[in-house]
Amino acid sequence: MGQNAPGARGRLTFKYLPDVALADIAFEAESDSPGGLFEACALALTDIMVDPATLKDSKVREFSLESGDLDRLLYDFLTELIIAKDVDSLLFREFAVSLDHEGRTLRAVARGEPIDRDRHALRNDVKAVTMHMFGVKRDGARWTATVVLDI
Questions:
Q1: CA-to-CA distance for 125 and 117, rounded, in angstroms?
Q2: How far apart are the first and last CA of the chain?
Q3: Domain range spanning residue 74?
Q4: What band does 24 get if pLDDT is binned at 50, 70 and 90?
Q5: What's the pLDDT tens digit per position in 38-72?
Q6: Please, are residues 84 and 49 in contact by the beta-carbon 8 Å criterion?
Q7: pLDDT tens-digit map of 114-147
Q8: Residue 22's pLDDT band (boundaries 50, 70, 90)?
Q9: What are the backbone dihedrals phi and psi of residue 142, each rounded to the nearest 5 degrees, phi first?
Q10: Burial class (CB in 10 A: 0-12, 13-18, 19+), 149
Q11: Which of 46, 70, 92, 103 could be joined to 112 by an S-S link, Cβ 3.0–4.6 Å?
Q12: What percent of the chain has pLDDT over 70?
């Protein structure tokens, strides 16, 4: 339904456009360690954006992050990978992540390369990590994360 609103420049209108795009992709990742879980999530993010088999590992980027809890640290890490894609046009195919014992500090090394639209099999342009359904859980020796991405 359209909406009408009075404005300083007269009558303003807008309408919602249903079924224009599917805006989310969700995944669940698992590992036997928090660092492995972060690596699995980073690999899933990469796989959503590009066929990782088309990426080389010619560029290295290091990430250092701190946060109040493990959930927020994962959220921030995935966001940094999206920022690297958007700002520096970098995609990564390999990740080595280490966390402190409290899960508040992350050190990661990512290997990849600048985006090459002729050579890379690009899939989805991820815009952001959402908080919808987002979370990290531990069940015994297994760590699981649920992530929803806005595309």
A1: 13
A2: 25
A3: 31-150
A4: confident
A5: 999 999 999 999 999 999 999 999 999 999 999 99
A6: no
A7: 999 999 999 999 999 999 889 999 999 999 999 9
A8: low
A9: -100, 135
A10: buried
A11: 92
A12: 85
Query: Is residue 63 domain-resident?
Result: yes
In a domain, 21, yes or no: no
Rounded CA gap, 72 and 70, in Å? Answer: 6
Q: Is the pTM of this model over 0.90?
A: no
Q: Is residue 96 part of a domain?
A: yes
- Measure Cα distances from 77 to 4, 18, 43, 57 in Å: 41, 32, 12, 19
- Name, in order, each residue with C-beta under 8 angstroms of 104's C-beta and a sequence gap of 6 or more: 66, 67, 68, 69, 70, 73
**Is 45 a member of any domain?**
yes
The DSSP 8-state label assigned to residue 50 in this structure reads B
* CATH code, domain with 44: 3.55.10.10
Is the CB of residue 94 less than 8 Å from the CB of residue 81? no
- Total domains present in the chain: 1
Token digits of residue 27: 């995944």
Question: Could you tell me which of 39, 35, 69, 36 has the C-alpha nearest to residue 52?
Answer: 39
